[in-house]
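Sharing in case it's useful to others searching the archive later.

Someone asked me privately for the predicted structure of PsbP C-terminal domain-containing protein, so I'm posting the question and my answer publicly. Question first, with the sequence:
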Amino acid sequence: MATLFPSPPKPPQNLSPKLCCSSRRAFAVGNAAASMVSLTLALSLPEISSPSPALSIAEPEAAPPRRPLLTGISSTKSWLQFYGDGFSIRVPPRFEDIMEPEDFSAGLSLYGDKVKPKTFAARFASPDGSEVVSVVIKPSNQLKITFLEAKDIKDLGSLKEAAKIFVPRGANLYSARTIKIREDETIRSYYFYEFGVDDQHVALVAAVNNGKTYIAGATAPQLKWENDGVKLRSAAISLSVL
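And my answer, the predicted structure tokens:
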């Protein structure tokens, strides 16, 4: 897996009309070529690519975050809900849609030429652009070579094994949890990782459905995480696979 930290996000634009509450029609966004996983987050999320056999994760060099993990979240029910291609996610107040216009048309081809995959399925930023919430979608067999269609995140390995896919090399891993959510008559598992890379703090949630891996990540500079970490962590955990 290659780490992915692209250039800083452009200044926020007006909130896209495609951001909607559950009462509006779902907005479809095509496949995403990884980046919030390991997301293109640095200003988004580290970008995700096929895992490398040599990939390793640095042992935590510092004490875990001051706030205990899943107790440090808040309700997101009052936030706007964005519907994408097979997923939904809650968007923090005042965050704006910063998807580039070309991102909406990526994945479409009328003449049979090679389709350019999108980097993001969704991307939102704070008014100053320093805090970003993103979603990418990746075919699961590109993350772990297999002839079988992945139906659950556990098909990519245990929580510890999958960290080699989702956590960038050299990151300080603060916490890792498996979250189980009842959906209809089944229970879906999500993997949660919180880690630091350079001066960025990242909260990442991943889930699998129908052979696709959905990765939501929220990132901010370490200094800003002290004040906004609960909000950003809550946004990442709000990911729901439909």
